[in-house]
Write a structure and sequence with these properties.
The protein is of the alpha/beta class and 159 residues long. Helices cover 13% and strands 24% of the residues. The chain has a six-stranded mixed sheet with strand order 1-2-3-4-5-6, with no helix packed on it. It has a three-stranded antiparallel sheet with strand order 7-8-9, with no helix packed on it. A hairpin with a 5-residue loop joins β8 and β9. The chain is globular, with a radius of gyration of 15 Å.
Length: 159
């Protein structure tokens, strides 16, 4: 799904897998470019191939991961290398975890090097009970301007 408000656009492909993602941009990019990309499949290495992420050329990526799910090393590499990317925001801090072959992961995930800066992460607590849960808020205007806010700490960036 592409959400549009005037010149602003956000891409959310849910849990599509690599093959279906790839078909959306190869041989022709059927999606165009977007301002915000919500990582597909929680940022697991089952979705969001470089061909798709680089073709949609997001300015901002939102990683909808959990503390122990998503945010694969391969996804981080793909998203961070996307042309024109300004920031990655995360729903949860990804704790260090070993690769899961079922998700086609080839190396350790999470930890200091595979997370956004702390002020761009909504939930730092790795507890599963979510006693305190925070969100990332995107606000847009028809002229294409948008802002992203971490509701845990109030940090806002305007784009």
């Amino acid at each position: 799904m592409i959400i549009r408000l005037g010149k602003f656009s956000m891409l959310d492909l849910g849990d599509l897998t690599w093959q279906k993602d790839h078909e959306l941009v190869c041989p022709n990019n059927l999606l165009g470019t977007v301002d915000v990309y919500l990582t597909t499949h929680h940022g697991l290495n089952l979705s969001g191939p470089p061909a798709l992420v680089h073709a949609v050329h997001p300015r901002v990526a939102l990683m909808n991961n959990g503390p122990r799910k998503g945010g694969s090393r391969e996804t981080w590499t793909t998203v961070k290398s996307s042309p024109g990317l300004e920031d990655i925001w995360q729903l949860h801090y990804s704790v260090p975890r070993p690769p899961n072959p079922s998700f086609h992961e080839s190396a350790d995930n999470g930890g200091k090097d595979l997370n956004a800066p702390e002020d761009l992460i909504a939930n730092l607590d790795e507890a599963a009970d979510h006693a305190s849960a925070y969100a990332i808020k995107v606000s847009a205007t028809p002229d294409g301007a948008f802002s992203v806010t971490n509701l845990r700490n109030g940090v806002t960036r305007k784009y």
